[in-house]
Amino acid sequence: MAIRLNQNSLHDLPATVAAPGYARAALGAGIVHFGVGNFHRAHQAAYLDALFAKGLGHDWAIVGAGVMPGEERLRSVLEAQDWLTLHVAQSAGASEARVIGSMIDYLPIADGAAIVARLVDPAIRIVSLTVTEGGYFLDAEGGFDPEHPAILADTLNPEAPATVFGLIIKALRLRREAGTAPFTVMSCDNLPHNGTLTRGTVVGLARLVDPSFADWIASSVAFPNGMVDRITPATSDRERALAREEFGVADGHPVFSEDFIQWVLEDDFPQGRPPLEAVGVTFVADVTPYEHMKLRILNASHAMLAYPAALLGITYAHDAVVHPLIAAMLGKIQREEIIPGVAQVPEITPEDYFGITLRRFANPKIADTIARLCYDGANRQPKFIVPALRHALDAGLVIDGLALACALWCRYCAGTREDGSVIEPNDPAWDRLNAVALAARREPGLWLAQSDIYGSLGKDERLQAAFARALDALWRDGVEATVSAFVA
């Protein structure tokens, strides 16, 4: 019988599952985190768990928070488990399971009063976020979008905000009035200059209501940039069964991830921070080169292999990355169009990083689905593909491969695979994307004209011509023939 995970059952865990090596009752809250999903629990929460097990930083425990109704189910699961999570880190040949105990509370979802009350607590010195790439209210050029309906709603009702950023602003105002130092706001999302973007959204929203207070936030609140990395698939019945059958633990929402983990942070925490360097976090003055390497090599590679794999009916990333045509396409695009524009970091060259990325993708234990990688392309493409395209165009590099990657996404959004089977809607903007993709079969420029995705880049004549050629070939010759011709 599998042991039901909770605080009282920790002493009954199987020998193959490590328990938190510290007294959770003695932990004190120092961080409020918005967006308690799988990645957060396998990354930030895992780092803090390792730190606490070393006897360090016990006043930096996590309090979860969320504003989206969809977060309620996970919160209910975690509440029944006393906020504990079974995390399994997997390499191709081994698995390591441990129970993570670094979260000690999780505020009621969308309860603005409860969230703000915790945010104004002087013990809270960091507010962190994993609200997804699409959760920052950005326009096509990467700036703050003041016209977003959620932003307009918070502007009209600043005392009862509904967004993460509105709640942060209200709490900062109350802390300032009480003479409490402002907390640091730390994004943990896969975005270039995520701290800078977070500052832009917080300050931009505040400026719509109180320009002078917005100026104070801009000058007084720290928003460090950071690069985060760990492949963490979604949890399904497969993972729940593995937790029970292989590790003897009944967890309603266990987290399985790869064994690789990385976190690079700018060291800008005026109110202090946990000593995460003791567990492998890299603190730097400027995270930019690390961001570029990860976003343009790892994330862009995920985005480039996902759509041809989906069109060919491939289910898992580890199968896609060893498919001869997809592997050859990915390697050619990276080495000719992306890697030449990526700067080296002290620890590794871009070429070596790409090699590590391919090995990580090929890990069959992760079972990362192509459907997950395809999801939310309207938000991911502007973050992972469009910047690489812009750099390649500015540098005079070839762009045929990146244009093909855009065309493959367009072909995917048309809603059918190569064998004619239907692709289920897989994007919050699916209805629009599907309509534009079908129309682009006759008029390719319509796809690039989506300004929220491509911005001004969609008007570039080189990109328009290369995209049109690629999309026409995909419809006329099919995925395999088109990719084969590109690789050749």
UniProtKB/TrEMBL annotation:
Q: Which residues form the Mannitol dehydrogenase C-terminal domain?
A: 286-475
Which SUPFAM superfamilies does UniProt cross-reference here?
A: 6-phosphogluconate dehydrogenase C-terminal domain-like, NAD(P)-binding Rossmann-fold domains
Q: Which InterPro entries match?
A: 6-PGluconate_DH-like_C_sf, 6PGD_dom2, Mannitol_DH, Mannitol_DH/Oxidoreductase, Mannitol_DH_C, Mannitol_DH_CS, Mannitol_DH_N, NAD(P)-bd_dom_sf
Superkingdom assignment: Bacteria
Keywords, alphabetical: NAD, Oxidoreductase
Do the record's keywords include Oxidoreductase?
A: yes
Please state what the protein is called: Mannitol dehydrogenase family protein
Tell me which species this is from.
Novosphingobium organovorum
